[in-house]
Structures are given as structure tokens and as C-alpha cells.
Amino acid sequence: MTTPLSGRQPKAVRSALAVLEEVVAAGPGVTAKEISAALRLPSATTYRLLNLLVADEYLVRLPDLKGFALGRRAARLALPATSTVPTAARAVVEHLRTQVRWGVHLASFATGQVVVVDGDPDHPPSAAAVLARFPQASALGRLLLAEQPDWRALVRELRPLTPHTVDSADDLEKLLAGVAADGWARQLGELHAERGCLAVPIRAPGDGRLVAGLALAGPVARVAEPNDALLDRLRQHAERLAPLLA
Amino acid sequence: MAGDVPLRLRDRSPVDGLRRRRLGPVEVFAQSVSGAAPSAAMAATPVIVAASAGSATVVSFLVATVLMLLVAACIGQFTRRMAAPGGLYSLTAKGLPPGAAFACAIGLIVGYGLLAAAALAGAGAYLEALLATAGVRAGPLPTAAGIVVVGGLVALLALRGVRLSARVVLLVESVAITLMVGVFTVLLVTGPAAGPAADLPAPGLGGIAAGVVPAIAAFIGFEVATVLGAEARKPFRSVPRAVGATAAVAGVLYLFAAHTQVVGFSTTPGGLAAQLEPVNALVTAGGWAWLPVVLDSALVMSFAACALATVTALVRVLFSLSRDGLAPAAWGRTHRRYRTPHVALAVAVPAAVGALAVPVAVGVPIGPVLVVLLTMATCGFLVAYLLVCAAAPVFLHRIDELTRIAVVAAAVIVPVLLFVLVAFVVVTPLPSVLLGGLTVLGLAWYAWLRYARPSELAGIGVYDETLTTDVLGVRTGP
Known about the structure:
The complex is a heterodimer. Helices cover about 40% and strands about 20% of the residues of chain A. By secondary structure, chain A is an alpha+beta fold. Chain A has two domains: about 10-75, Winged helix-like DNA-binding domain superfamily/Winged helix DNA-binding domain (Arc Repressor Mutant, subunit A, Orthogonal Bundle), CATH 1.10.10.10; about 85-245, 2-Layer Sandwich (Beta-Lactamase), CATH 3.30.450. In chain A, the strands form two sheets. A five-stranded antiparallel sheet of chain A has the order 5-4-8-7-6, sandwiched between helices. By secondary structure, chain B is mainly α.
């Protein structure tokens, strides 16, 4: 059995980081032998480090089993880049704000996290760190989770933030299946006891991948009502945003 | 670099339909241990080994453990790099030509299928023994009916999904092992009957080597976790660990059991080798009336867990063959809710149960049926182990990650496995004939595939590939 790297092995840690860097530098498809040669690392060490990094999903093996590429988890190593929202997109969001008396937030999923890129100045969204850390408790986060092959990859802990927060894996599983089926998400008092949220996905027009989410925030009682007309309006704006953000 | 390497990534896994990336490490390990069913082998195998190895029985087990750890290491070369529900045959396909991979698949089908039947036979036999202690004597038909019921139960659990079945086998197998270790500790503490040490002839090297053959048979099934690759949460870590740890744990348990039994009979003329039912004899000599009941219950549970684990593996091999295009397409379907290969299950379980229930119903005693099934299953596994170990260095060479240790491991283990396989086939007339029949069937299947599905055969070895969604920052065209 391989023992996990301990803090007492600075060389191994350094080598592992060098391997990661080399994969980024060389681009997807680089082989173990090439990495070993480029870093002048002993080949057996390189193979072991690569297998460790693959087991932890920082790297993946490409289908030829020979080449390596960065895995999704590597995205967590970088700070979410502050993406600038095009003025045309801001205008669409602003238009929605004039039409409803709710808080309107636009969030980007480009980094694999919920990053609010245009929060409502009159109804500020929850703290960025909370949204990023507990995606399961926000409507926007649920859009992101429902898109994952396995939501566990992005959920750190199922901690109850309010008495209403979903805190069991089975319940969350059902919730996310519902989100995937309905095409929109909702949370009722799960981040703050009095406030709820509705969110719809914004998908790239070409390949349909999830790029962002548009959310309406309001009092729990109002959010809990069937809001079909409101959802329609939200979807219309999401559609107009799609070509501007993808 | 990125420009000249085409990234052909799929959006959906070729083994889509199974519940991807869900099983935790403990569940994977539990399946693996149950496949090897160490508690059953602890009771049954030492006496068989002692027939050739005598007082050196423990040495034979030690050698077998080292060899199986080597097999686990060879399998680990693959499972640290890929995850395949087809288990060893998909792995073999990455190193050896399609014919060898197909032979490995046949070996696995024979191995898992007959091991499942043998495990049901074992459960039936010890259930009979339990009933006999209660004064009930079951005839052949009720016994066969009992086997069918247990088989149905196993099928139901296997259908409900690997998570539930993993939890069931974890519970059952840990209770069984604890009971067995408890019983053996009691026996070891009591020590042998008073008297001078029996004069046993020292077994030569040949005796020890001959003892290794049945000792290896005690390990079969320890690689069951390989079929859970696609379903394990961190397959590249949990699967190789489960396989390696199972070989190690089973090895330690066998050494303990062998030592206990050798010591227990050290004052009896003829020693352990002269016994028919050594554990029962030791227990009776100790004068505990309740121990046989505990022992038999533990064995029934262990065998049932083994049947569940091997059926789980068998249906995934069939599922994978179907996804390869080498078996009926229906076998590749999965249950909409439980995400298990339910059609393959409906085919495999009746076949495995039938292989056992029919001879039992017509009056063949369970004991000999169990021995024949186990022997045949062992041969199937040996073929699969042999091929996967031979494939390991070739695979590593192909992906440019060959190390000297990998070559040495394969160079040691492959000739040994070949020798063990030959030894197994040569000494057992009836199973050999039946195996010959199965080989002919396998060859016929292969010939048909060569004729009707040559391109599918060439592409054998489907596995859970990296998908577009798994890779960061790579966008393939729509």
C-alpha cells in the first residue's frame, strides 16, 4: 500500500507540485515519460506521484491511458478569477431589476464555484464565501450541483446553516434530481431563515453547457408560492443573457 | 503539445448505466473480503494443504500469501490507472491480444459463476449441518429448494444495488470472521491433547510446494473489487487497496488457522493430515457442545456473503462483455431505479443455482458437488490471474511506464501460476473433463465472434474512460 505524503516529505510535495505544473505547461496529452524527462525526476517516483494525483482527481488519464490532463479538482487550486460582465449583460440584468421587486443576482459557474458577478445593490446577496462554500444551500449552487456527475465532488460539508438547511445526502440527492428534471432550483430559508431564492440556468447556445445562473431572492413565503409567471420572466432574461455570457 | 494530440473524449461513459463513483472504500473492501470468504477457507483448507505439507502447512500458506500479494500487485498496476466493470478481462485487454482477453473473460465467468454456485453449496451444506444438530434431517429435494431460496435472496440483494449488498456482506462477513477468530483462539489457548508429540515425517520441499496449490485456492475471489471500479468513489485508490488488503488479511487469517490446527493435532498420530473434519474434531475434543453451532452459523453466513459478492462480480463481467458487443445487447441494460445489470442477473443466477440445485435434487450429496465446483472455479480464476499478470508489464510498456519491479513480479508469478494451473487440472479427473467441455463451449463462442463480430472482438476491454466533464479546461467540438 502506498503511504500518503506526510508533511515530513518536503521533496515529495515539491515534486508533486512540479508534476502538476508540468502538466499545465505541456498541455493535455503529456505522458509520464515526458514529465519524468522534463523534470529530471526518477521515473518510478514520477509514476507514483502521477498515480497519486490521478487517484485524488487533480489529474486525469486520457482515454489512451498514456496521456495526462488536469482534472476538474485542479480548479480548486486557483482563486476564482474575477470575471467582468459585459455591459450588454448588465443591461439585461438591470432591466429585470426594474420589472420585479425582488433581489436579482447573476452568478458565474466558470470556475466550478458559485461566484456572484452582478449582485443586486439594493438587496445584497449572501456573503461570497458562504455561497462558494455551501453550494447545496443556495438555489444558484443547486443549479451547479445538479449538473455534476457526482455532486460530492463540490460539496464540502452538509452543515445546517438554518433549521431549514438540507443536511442529509439522500435529501440533497432527491432535491438535485428535481432540479435536473425541472430546469430550475429553489431554496427556502436555507441560507438565512427569512429569505428564499429561485434560480434558472444560463446555458451556452452552442453546446448547452452551464455557464451561469440568474436568481431572484425574496421573502420565504413569497418564494414558496407557485411563481410560474415570474419563472417565465426569469427564463426569458436568462435566454437573452446566454449569448452574452457564453 | 496540445495541438498535435487529438483529445477524443466522450461525453458519456461506455459503461454508462451503472451508478458511477458512489461506493466508499469500506464498501469496496467488504466486497473483496467476502469474495475470498476467508472464514470458510479457514476451516476447510488447512487440512487439504496438510495432506501434502504435513507439519509445514504454515509454510505452504506463507508462500501462497506472498504469491497472491504479487498477483494483487500486478492487478494494482492496472487498477491504479483504469476502472473497469469487466474486471480482470478488461485489464488484460490493455496488455495482451483480444483472444487472451476473451480467454480471461471466460475464466472469470467460469470462476465467478461456479464460485457463486459453490458458495451456495457451502451455505446449503452447513445449513444442513445446523438442522442436523437440531435433529432435522433434510432430504435432497428440500435441500435443493433451500438452495433455490437462498439463490433468490442473493439475486434480490444483488439487484437492489451494490451499496446495499456491500453493507450486507460487510456486516455478515465481519460477524463470521469474528466468530471464526474467536473459535480458533479458544482452540489455540486450549492446546493439543496431552501426550507426547506425534512422530510426523518432515515434508520435503516437494510437499511444501504441493501444499501451495490448494492454499492458493483459498484466496480465489479476493480480486472481486476490480469489477467495482466504475462504481467506487475514488477507484484508483480504493480498488487496489481493497485487493491488496484482502490478500494480506486472508493470508494472516489462514496462517493463524493453519497454525492452530497443526498445533491442535500435534499429539495426534498422523497429525492434521489424518483428520476428516479437523475443526469439529478439535471442538469435540475440547468438549464444547455449543461451538459447532457457532461455527456452522458463521460458515453459512460467510458462504452466503461470498455468493452475493461473486454474483455481483459475475453480472458486471457479463454486462461489460455486452457493452463490448460480444454478448447479447440485453445483458448490457441496467435497472432504471437500482442501476444494476438486471438482465444479466436474470440469466446468471438461474444458471449458477441450476449448476448446483439439479445435481443435489437428484440425490448427489452436497459435499462432492462443492469440491467439484470449487476446483473448477479455481481453474477459471487461475487462468484469469495468469493472463492479467502476464498482461501487466506489456501494458506498462505500452503506456511508457514500465518499471523493473513490475517486470520482476510478473516474471516470478506467471510461471508459478502456470505450474499451479497444470497441477490443478492434472490431479482432478472429473472437474478436468467438465472444464474441457466448458473450454470447448468457450472456443465455440470465440470462433463465432471471430466470424460474426471481428471488429467488436478487436476492441474488447471496455472501461470507464475519462469523460469531457472530468477534464479541466478542455473543450472538444460539439
